[in-house]
Design a protein that fits this description.
ribokinase activity, PfkB_dom, potassium, alpha/beta, about 40% helix, four-stranded mixed beta sheet, binds alpha-D-ribofuranose, UDP-N-acetylmuramoyl-L-alanine:D-glutamate ligase
């Protein structure tokens, strides 16, 4: 089983010509409501690509309409919602602007995500977990607590260090990395994490991820947008895969799609190159629709894309 411990949001998304600068107001023709939250997105991506692999969500929503809709959506996507608690804060909400190039800016009102609790996850669930997936939209101490338990029980711990809060304590970051098997960061996050840890600044994100992989004896993966993905193992071995050449409609959730599909590859014990390739293809395909979850591919869509590359290549 894949256990995703993390955030659940409703996304309110407005398309704009250009993302507003501080102090600026821009008008959008309207807005859309979509399902989001890095944790929920990763769970949906894993369930779609997992073709029957069990995916469970551990998180929290408020006792409100957004919460009921979000849980209903997860269930409809075949994610086990038995670990989603209803707490006394409003369901998380993300305010997203997407510009004409498909790039976004996001503010998350955390709400119920602040109450996500490791203690609420039973030992039985931990014992069933093959891959634990974490991100940083829930309290870091709770991430650490569940990661330690899962690691001790033999699970693979995947940490998507997104977002990297500017006040992430160095000790907490180091303790988390000490129990992480696979670290996933984008270009900015790799360098921001290095800064949080008060490590000397690397020349670029590739050097940063390599340094973190070596220092913490983990596999570090940096996602590079249209330039694909680079994985560096603790011994320095590198694996690079390309992204699909696409014109993005909306990049929201692309990183989450990558994480969810990679978790499926890890749970299935696929070779790293194969797992990375499937995840990178899935992340590219997810950019072809509006909203974080709408265009996430299922296993058949990923297979078809790989097959078409083999034929045309
Ligand atoms: O990674 C994209 C997600 O970040 C959005 O769905 C939004 O909810 C924020 O959490």
């Amino acid at each position: 089983m894949i256990l995703v411990f993390g955030s659940i949001n409703i996304d309110l998304v407005a398309k704009v010509a250009a993302i507003p600068a501080p102090g600026e107001t821009v008008l959008s023709e309207g807005y859309e409501k979509a399902f989001g939250g890095k944790g929920a997105n990763q769970a949906v991506a894993a369930a779609r690509a997992g073709a029957g692999l069990r995916v469970r969500m551990a998180g929290a929503v408020g006792d409100d309409g957004f919460g009921r809709e979000a849980v209903g959506n997860l269930a409809a996507q075949k994610v086990d919602t038995g670990g989603v608690d209803v707490v006394g804060l409003p369901t998380g909400c993300a305010f997203i602007t997407v510009d004409a190039r498909g790039e976004n800016a996001i503010t998350v009102g955390s709400g119920a995500n602040r109450k996500v609790s490791a203690e609420a996850v039973s030992d039985t669930v931990i014992a069933d977990t093959k891959v634990l997936v974490l991100q940083m939209e829930v309290p870091g101490r709770e991430n650490l607590a569940i990661a330690r338990r899962a690691k001790a029980a033999g699970a693979t711990v995947v940490l998507n260090i997104a977002p990297v809060a500017s006040d992430l304590p160095a000790v907490l970051a180091a303790e988390l990395l000490a129990v992480t098997d696979v670290l996933i960061a984008n270009e900015h996050e790799a360098l921001a994490l290095e800064a949080s840890l008060a490590l000397p600044t690397s020349a670029d994100e590739r050097a940063a991820i390599a340094g973190l992989a070596r220092r913490y004896a983990l596999t570090g993966i940096v996602t590079l947008g249209s330039k694909g993905v680079l994985a560096v193992e603790a011994d320095g071995r590198e694996t690079a895969v390309a992204a699909l050449p696409i014109v993005p409609v909306d990049t929201t959730g692309a990183g989450d799609t990558f994480v969810g599909i990679l978790a499926v590859g890890l749970a299935r014990a696929l070779p790293l190159q194969t797992a990375l390739q499937r995840a990178a293809i899935g992340a590219s395909l997810a950019c072809l629709g509006f909203g974080a979850q709408a265009a996430m591919p299922d296993a058949a869509a990923i297979d078809a894309r790989i097959a078409s590359q083999v034929v045309s290549g």
